[in-house]
Amino acid sequence: MTARKPAPPAEAVTADAHWEAKRAKLRARTRPTVTLTICDDDDLKKAAATAQLLEEQAQETAEKNPGDKTAQAAAKAAADHLASAQAALDEASIELRFQALPRNEFRELLAAHPPTEDQAGKGYDYNPDTMAPVLIAAASLDPLTEEDAAEFLDNWSQAEGERLYSAALRVQQADRMDLGKG
């Protein structure tokens, strides 16, 4: 066990405006969020992807030829087409938003769903079958209930159910930190 660094004197901390500002930023941080976007219209997804590619190509041509009015007009037209295609895709899409739970809440949730003997034998630390709908509902920023989550997991395809559960689980493991240069 390593020795704990003694706390600096309170007056030294108070006098260090940089530390106070840093502490305020640390306390103001929000927990990570992720968005799961669902769109059942493959034609709209393909149209948006194609428009994105064409816009990138037109923009590259326009940047290489700044004096070419035709290239500039084509880039503008491609950007307008992309905006239209993206708007259509956005209109047809459903977004579900998830936020990481506070650490203690997530640990309690894991503990409340112990693995079965078979799952424990396979290395599981928790039971994903019982935990999935609870985690999805708890992490959802939308009014998604456990009943909704259970219904979606039961009725959607295996891959889609896994994506739903993965979004709620992945945000619990989101890491927005860097050890820096060192």
Describe this structure in words.
The structure is a single chain. The chain has 182 residues and is mainly alpha-helical. Helix content is 63%, strand content 7%. It has 9 helices and 2 strands, in the order H-H-E-H-H-E-H-H-H-H-H. The protein has a two-stranded antiparallel sheet with strand order 1-2. Helix 3 runs antiparallel to helix 4, helix 7 packs across helix 8 and helix 7 packs across helix 9. The longest helix is centred in the middle third of the chain and has 24 residues. It is flat and about 70 Å long. The protein starts with 9 loop residues before the first helix and ends in a 12-residue tail after the last helix.
How would the global form be characterised?
flat
Distance between the termini: 23 Å
Strand content: 5-15%
Instruction: Count the beta strands.
Output: 2
Largest sheet, order of strands side by side? 1-2
User: What is the rounded Rg?
Assistant: 24 Å
Please state the average pLDDT score. 94
Major sheet details: 2 strands, antiparallel
- Backbone structural class: mainly alpha
Low-confidence stretches: none
Helix fraction by DSSP (H/I, runs of at least 4): 55-70%
How many individual helices?
9
The SSE order reads HHEHHEHHHHH
